[in-house]
Amino acid sequence: MAAQPEKKDWSATQYLKFGNERTRAVHDLLAQVTPHISSPNPRIYDLGCGPGNSTQALLSAFPSARITGMDSSPDMLSKARATLPDVEFVSSDLSTYKPDQAADLLFSNAVFHWLRTDNRIPTLSKLFKNLQPGAVLAIQVPDNYHFPSHTLMRTTACLTNKPWSKYFSSSHIGDTSDSSRPDLDPIEPPSSFYNALSPHASLVNVWRTEYQHVLSDHGAIVEWVRATGLQPYLNCIEDEGAREAFLTEYEERLKGEYERLGDGRVMLGYPRLFVVAVRK
């Protein structure tokens, strides 16, 4: 039987190798949020705060805010606390977390894409409905399930007669009915988010942006996703040699999908879906 993904911690150091690129979406989301925040000292929750890069952006935009960062990763929280010692950071699970109903802003950079389909929009709706009138919910999620960076994770894991094959032989990769598999669920279409939030909102703003990140080489793409979507696969592979063989195969397959630019670098297309909703 294939090993299930272990409950291993995330790496703040790995995540921050591309900190500027990852934080770009935070600033784009904030640009649509700030017009809706009228309080001089708003109460803000940063859901899935990671190493605190999004929290820092929130603090810069709202210097007088009282901010609480929430995450489930000890390493991410440790980095966040070291970076922003005056900000409150708490450990919790997004599916069960209950912010103060007096919150002015619930902000989330990427964490909702880790929830399974049957839990993602219900969790989002529950959080939104508990807000006070005029409060704002703002999220962004990577929307790359069908992009080569992520399809090749599934393809590589499903190869037979490879050193890593036994670890995925019964993991049902691609079968969205199996919640134990390492691959994430596809993101719902924009209309699903709109339909879920609009009955309780005075405004719902949904948009999608595909970023084009120029990286040094195909190995850099591996390093990028190793901090996020690739990690559940690596957690399944118990043998270090098999894990390295998996990474080598994955990188080789990336070379067939991402051609070199004129200067030898590569361009990683990275789509993200954004939602801003104001509670009525």
Précis, in short:
The chain has helices at residues 12-15, 19-33, 53-61, 74-83, 117-129, 148-157, 190-197, 218-226, 231-236, 240-255; strands at 43-47, 66-71, 88-91, 105-109, 136-142, 201-215, 266-279. By secondary structure, the protein is α/β, with parallel strands linked by helices. Strands 3-2-1-4-5-7-6 form a seven-stranded mixed sheet, sandwiched between helices.
Description:
By secondary structure, the chain is an alpha/beta fold. The protein has a single domain, classed as Vaccinia Virus protein VP39 (Rossmann fold). Helices cover 36% and strands 20% of the residues. The chain contains 10 helices and 7 strands. It has helices at 12-15, 19-33, 53-61, 74-83, 117-129, 148-157, 190-197, 218-226, 231-236, 240-255; strands at 43-47, 66-71, 88-91, 105-109, 136-142, 201-215, 266-279. Helix 5 (117-129) links the parallel strand 4 and strand 5. This is S-adenosyl-L-methionine-dependent methyltransferase. Keywords: Methyltransferase, Transferase. Residues 44-134 form the Methyltransferase domain. It holds the Pfam family Methyltransf_25.
